[in-house]
Design goal:
Substrate Binding Domain Of Dnak, Chain:A, Domain 2, binds iron/sulfur cluster, 3 domains, Rossmann fold, alpha/beta, six-stranded parallel β-sheet, 25 helices, binds FE(4)-NI(1)-S(5) CLUSTER with Oxygen, 16 strands, 633 residues
């Protein structure tokens, strides 16, 4: 089985019937995958290599320069964290540049849309909030851009978002980053041939880089909220059934809302143009994290996620796939060629050969968006009279749970102390703990299977679930982001709490079973919630019954996020084995030794039932530590 999503399976069959290759075919072609790579013991960091260290006694124990398995595994891991950090923080920097350009009259499509968030954030960062909005925004952007290069002293976007005791702990370990890009650069330096050859020291460097990743992700969330609005609960539908044969269907894919926000605005203005080509209208749909961004702020329906991204074109009804960057498979260009759907790349740093490239620069963003949508209108005209295959499968979705929205709902129960209902219910055991389900789909796992299993196991045991990224997308497509799913899957305690909060907040029923916090940079929202609860209780995050799981993770970004989560003190379950087993020392440090240092640690368990159980037991250990009643699995 390739996917648990019936719509995806139907389109995989269409691909097979048409002889179009997909990610699942290419995975088969790659088998057997290289065992050295899987263990993390392959090094290509210089041209004397590639070297690989053998896990067997009779094979080579060191690379040509003498690097041992521990060094090679740690170097590879740390490079992955650095790459993930570069991706999240590059995304943040684009937002900062867009806001900066807007403030200087050079990006007319952009500006400050959420003054309240701007003021709240400025206050958190120690900026005088009496300034007029434009000056306040200017100060904040300057501070944000100042997080990237080398700076004196720690970064406020790292220290202001953690508990004080965590800041002290990380300062004591010497792992507070001195600037996001400075830290990324240092990790590339340290992993060059002949620099850092102490795996513990390398991993500490990786932890510092992961803190930089958290800061970069946080900047991305904060600036997107300020520029485009802080999400509030929205209701829509997900999966292929949201495509409309008679409309101009445009998929927005990638990560950065800088491009997609303008497309949303301009599409709204071009409805009449669509009718003139015989369409009922323009139907925007989302893929991956750009899809999450526009879902959270504009209720744009999420279509599909991660490994199934090639399939929308096979419906014969997609009129453009517009991509920005990250997690965009190059394979889309070949499918576009077969299906005739325009694939449009929009950023000069992320082109795909075979795609149409229209650079959506800040100065002319609206004009460029118009050009892109016009391409889709042309494609719509051309496809008239051709058959389409749109799987008629869709689920209701309730999304849009920013921290502000969550606190807003809780405030309906206790306006003086919004966190009290949450904390009280955790203490009583109605809620056994809180688990963030994050990360990607991975072709090595039947799509969504681990996500579904982990959520059902934990919800039945009264664990409150939060989701981001393609994990949230999986839950959207399977109907778990709904109040209806509460009746079906929640344990009695969780059900009572979600119902009481939902009713107090005027929703006329429970909150959804799982709260969709947003894209992967929006894991920063989960950090804020955990830190708020920790501060409310006067303990550090590593004492809370809070954990994370990435049951189908794939990317370097996911590795960076997992590492910052353990750095904050969370147990983090991984549903695939990361490439570290080639070093017993690195493996044992990440899964147990580090617990004594940070409180957080990785739990690696590919079986999702067992993974859920281990996460639940980690929550129970924390509950016992706080003197709260605990439960057996
Ligand atoms: O940033 S969950 S496959 S789309 S990396 Fe990518 Fe993974 Fe999806 Fe979003 Ni996150
Ligand atoms: Fe081999 Fe060392 Fe070069 Fe890596 S850095 S490829 S282990 S010689």
């Amino acid at each position: 089985m390739k996917s648990k999503d019936p719509a995806v399976n139907r389109l995989i069959k269409v691909a097979a019937d048409q002889g179009i290759e997909t990610v699942w075919d290419r995975y088969e072609q790659q088998k057997p995958q290289c065992g050295f790579g899987e263990l993390g013991v392959c090094c290509r960091n210089c041209v004397q290599g590639p070297c690989r260290v053998s896990p067997f006694a009779d094979g080579p124990r060191r690379g040509i320069c003498g690097a041992d398995a521990h060094t090679i595994v740690a170097r590879n891991l740390v490079r992955a964290i650095a790459a993930g950090t570069a991706a999240h923080s590059g995304h943040a920097k684009h937002l900062a540049h867009a806001l900066h350009a807007a403030l200087h009259g050079k990006a007319p499509a952009y500006g400050v849309r959420d003054e309240e968030k701007l003021k709240a954030l400025a206050a958190k960062m120690g900026i005088n909030t009496d300034l007029p909005v434009s000056e306040l925004a200017e100060e904040l952007v300057r501070l944000a851009l100042g997080q990237f290069g080398e700076r004196e002293g720690p970064m406020p976007w790292a220290t202001a978002v953690m508990t004080e005791s965590r800041v002290e702990k990380l300062a004591g370990l010497g792992v507070l980053p001195s600037g996001i890009e400075n830290t990324i650069s240092e990790m590339l330096h340290r992993t060059h041939l002949g620099v850092d050859a102490d795996h513990v020291n390398l991993l500490l460097g990786g932890i510092s880089c992961a803190v930089a990743d958290m800061a970069g992700s946080h900047i991305a969330t904060d600036l997107a909220d300020i520029m485009f609005g802080t999400p509030k609960p929205v209701v829509t539908e997900a999966n292929f059934g949201v495509m409309k044969e008679g409309s101009v269907n445009i998929a927005l894919h990638g990560h950065n809302p800088v491009i997609s926000e303008v497309l949303v605005q301009v599409a709204g203005e071009m409805e009449q143009d669509a009718r003139e080509v015989g369409a009922e209208g323009i139907n925007l749909v989302g893929v991956c994290c750009t899809g999450n961004e526009v879902l959270m702020r504009h209720a744009i329906p999420p279509l599909t996620h991660s490994i199934s991204q090639e399939l929308p074109m096979l419906t014969g009804a997609l009129d453009a796939m517009v991509v920005d960057y990250q997690c965009v498979y190059p394979a889309l260009a070949s499918v576009a060629e077969c299906s005739g759907t325009p694939l449009v790349t929009t950023m000069d740093m992320a082109k795909i050969s075979g795609a149409v490239h229209i650079d959506v620069d800040l100065e002319q963003a609206r004009e460029k968006a118009r050009e892109i949508i016009s391409l889709a209108l042309e494609a719509f005209k051309k496809r008239q009279g051709r058959p389409t295959t749109i799987p008629d499968i869709k689920s209701k979705v309730v999304a849009g749970f920013s921290v502000e929205a969550v606190l807003g709902a809780l405030a309906a129960v206790d306006s003086a102390d919004p966190l009290k209902p949450l904390v009280d219910n955790i203490a009583s055991g109605n809620i056994q703990g809180v688990v963030l389900v994050a990360g990607c789909n991975n072709v090595k796992v039947p799509q969504d299977e681990n996500f579904l299993t982990v959520a059902k196991e934990l919800a039945a045991r009264d664990v409150l679930l939060l989701a981001t990224g393609c994990g949230a997308g999986a839950y959207a497509r399977h109907g778990l982001l709904t109040p209806e799913a509460v009746g079906q899957y929640a344990g009695s305690g969780l059900k009572a709490v979600l119902t009481a909060i939902g009713e107090a907040a005027g929703l006329g029923g429970p909150l959804p079973l799982i709260l969709h916090l947003g894209s992967c940079v929006d894991n920063s929202r989960a950090v804020d919630l955990a830190v708020a609860v920790a501060n409310r209780l006067g303990v550090d995050v590593d004492k809370l019954p809070v954990a994370a799981t990435a049951p189908e993770f794939k990317t370097e970004k996911a590795i960076a996020i997992g590492t910052y989560a353990i750095t904050l003190g969370l147990p983090v379950h991984l549903g695939l084995v990361p490439p570290v087993l080639g070093s017993a020392e690195v493996t044992s440090l990440l899964t147990s030794g580090i617990k004594d240092i940070l409180g957080g640690y990785f739990i690696v368990e590919p079986d999702p039932h067992k993974g859920a159980r281990l996460v639940f037991e980690a929550l129970q250990e924390r509950r016992r530590g706080l003197g709260l009643p605990s439960r057996e699995w």
